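Project channel, design review

CF: Before we commit to the Trapa natans constructs, I'd like one complete example in the thread so the newer folks can see what an input/output pair looks like. Taking DYW domain-containing protein.
RD: sounds good, go ahead.
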Amino acid sequence: MQVEGVTPNDFTLSTVLKSCACLTSLKLGKEVHGWILRNGVDADSVLENSILDMYVKCKELDSARILFDSMEEKSTVAWNVMIKGYVNDGDMESSMNLFQTLPFKDVGSWNTLIHGLMRNGRARTALELLYEKKLGPIFNEFTFSIVLCLAAALNLLDLGRQIHSRVIRFGSDTNEFIRTSLIDMYSKCGKVEIASSILGKIPVGCEMIPNYKMSPGELSRQTVSFSSLISGYVHVGDHESAFRTFRAMIYSQAMVNEYIVTSILSACASTGVLGLGLQVHAYIQKVGHKMDVPLRSSLVFMYAECGNLEDAKLIFEVEKSSCVGLWTSMISGLATNGRGREAIDLFECMLNEGVIPNEITFVSVLSACSHSGLLEEGGKYFKIMKEVYGIKPRIEHFTCMVDLYGRRGQLDEIKQFIYQNGISNLASVWKSFLFSCRLHRNVELGNWVREKLLKLIPDDPEPYVLSSNLCANDGRWEEAATIRSQMRKRGLRKLPGQSWIQLKNVVHTFIMGDDSHPKSSEIHAFLDDLIGLLKEIGYSPDAKLVMHDVEQEEGEKFVGFHSEKIAVAYGLMNTGSGMPVRVMKNLRICTDCHNFIKSASQHFGREIIVRDIHRFHHFRDGKCSCGDWW
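CF: and here is what came back for DYW domain-containing protein:
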């Protein structure tokens, strides 16, 4: 154009600068800006804003700010561009300071800052800013979506409902982005039945989405909405509904994106449903989803959390990655499965590769040390985390260290550690301390710890349960009964133990004393016979674990039908010889069940894998991967 002697006007220059911004071509953008200055172009506000936008999108914020400050008349557009530049750079202080000096704040200004605060982990500040705005007349559909996301992030159902009513009044309830935000908000706030109804064609209260016919094209258009719904189910722990929704999408040949896949893999990991996890992996390969690092991390985590370390390693080792999340998933998997030394070796390998650990990585490393009783190593990494990487310890780090001291029986050191680090206000560390007192049968110290805990969490049944168990294990039946009585007077109930096993895509759940399973009588008969057989090879039921003062024979009957024993028995009855048996439990496995399963693995020559609330136990040939250290 210049070769032909045609002088570009402001519109042409603005268009070229917009292209530079889209391509993030700072060099070319600077050349255009230089040409404007050399030729004395009298830039109007549109052209000035184009130059500013180019610098911002090319992340040249210092030059952008110099230009912004030199503008004689700054339009609202210029203010918003500069604010957004700081937001995108993560410099929220500069963006907020600039926002406060903005003479006229339009809806774009508010949206930019509130959205930016949320993206940068400052949802509470965003909420305060929102109330400062007082939800006035400057409100558009993007604002609705932002505020609904804010309500979801902070679990503010009342705020979400207020916005929903305003959405209806504005006639914006048919907007796909807002509907998706509503589904996400209600799901994250635990109201998944309302989220389902918003999704469309699904009445409030419906549980079985597959009962409702929807064409593949219609379902595909609602992929994002279904993604929010599945994510919501996983968020509130309703994994079975997440699985049903996922199967419905597959059945309808709907488009399933990577976000949905990672949500379902997370649900598989949480429940230990390896069978469905394998199906999801096969689906990923079938449809050709790109095996990027986030998806690999999800698969590694799923396999590890389901006790299948071999496949987790295969996916991890496909190619080297500098992504700390992938390394952390593998380290966490090794730790949870009792391979503490391997976890530490992998962590050292990660450091040698130049990958910088984050706070979650150190939780996994300290957990590995705790599960394997590696006190010296744990202390070393706790120190390195603070002094070398400048990571401030969180609750999880402190709890791992308390747990580690406790497993080694260093109860006095726990007390010293708690007060030295100023964490006496954290209930989780006292819970770990109380568990250690039970583990080492220190009743007096346990009672002292219980009183500390009850001041922090008076309505939590766990301190009562742990203390009652501690006293009962020591034969202090009256004291145990008194503690249980105190718990009942407060209207507190112990979380019932339950175990489950997946066979042929069906999850079978067992609770002690519940005979509702159709094969209950056969299972109990098999279990009775099995206990008799295992007694002959050295297994002895530990009636001391019964929390009531009963005779030895009666106590053996109590411990004989713990939920994990029933689930293991059902697995042995219904799986082929040589096949592993995989059982999940919602509480810590008791000592008697641990001994029983060790004996069963020896008698049948089978691997039995049990995941309790804390870790995996891989039983083989009469031994457990935890080394009886749990």
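RD: helpful, thanks. Residues 201-220, 547-557 have pLDDT under 50 and may be disordered.
CF: The radius of gyration is 30 Å.
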